[in-house]
Please model this.
Amino acid sequence: MAAVLYDVVREILVRLNDVTTLFRCAMVCKGWCSLLVSDDSFLRRCLPVPEKPCGSPSFSGFFTKLRLPVGLPPSPCFVPAPRSVLGCHGLRVFSSFFPSDRQADFFDHAVPLTSRHGLLLVRLDLHHAGFNTDPSSVLLAVCDPLAGMVHELPRLEHYWDFDNSSRIGGYALLTDSDCSSSNDGHGDGLQQRTRFFKVIMLTVEKSRLHCTLHAFSSADESGWSTRSGVVKDEEDRSICTVLRQHNAVVCDGAARWLLWGKAGVHTLDVSCKTGHVSLTRMMGVQLHYFRDQLHDHPYLSIDGEGKLMVLGLRRNGRELEIWTSHKDGRSFQASMLKLKGHNLPRKGHVYTCLGERHGMILVKDNNKRVYVADLKTGVMHEVKDWPRSNGLSRRKTVLFEMDWPGFFISQLTFAAY
Model:
């Protein structure tokens, strides 16, 4: 009889398409919770995956290091975006996301590196925090701030200076959807999908495009893998250029970093599945914009359809040049967006692009103000919770996105067990 009743409940619940309502239903009892998460196909019927790859996540705010209060060493903090779901708590120190039984210094000296789909990659600077650790090894961790979970990665030996921008290249944090197809083993099963991640750390020598690639997968217990070599263009030529962006953009099955130099504008691409490294020439993106004193350094991102785009902000804060790739991923078409906002200072202010996530661009000016601009409307809103601190830059700012339906579903999964 109970099985028949659960069949009736299942037919009722499958007609719900609101994740908040499903979450509330799952909290009724363990039976309903197990019913909701025991079958992946059932959840997919309730909450179909959006056709657009960027349709579900949203920009929630950014992580950076601040001096709070004055006189203490900088600590990582989260600054919510205007009208963000996480904005109700205001500015938060990084350690407040995690259980209080962990040592405060463990998080107070963390360095945010990059993020993706609600996960955050940080470097744990335990040596400077007073822990007895080998300074020639680096400890990274993948954090889920909303779930309060931390996954420490195996220690990695390194022979470079993190403050030397000519050597350290960049980081990529990948999820299961980036690395697997529907036929892969770890791609089947909701519980496994929410736990899988892959980390790529890239170092590039400035004199020539000789890169060293370190990769770690949560599905591989062997630890870090390392490979190195000289990257050549499609004509098998070695080129001399510089990596310009520390965080990678994930597009078309590859983690991509922006670089440019005398050889032109390229992306350095690392296959999410195989780790193969290659170069792609970006045709149509004008190199003179990258050297123009009237423009900020361009920023590589993806648009709402999952295509590559390059953003070039004018330093007066009035216009944004946008190069969007065609289907081939190599040729780009330029467009111009007028930026506007209520009572925004313009004269004498210099504006800098800090990053972009899901149609929202983060901008700062030389008066320590921070804004969020909508790439559809061009409207800019000031971030009110920003404490007007010094030192904010692209390298020290990590924009944070949340896949809210995915987060709620993952919480249903953990609640069922």
Observations:
- The chain has nine helices and 27 strands.
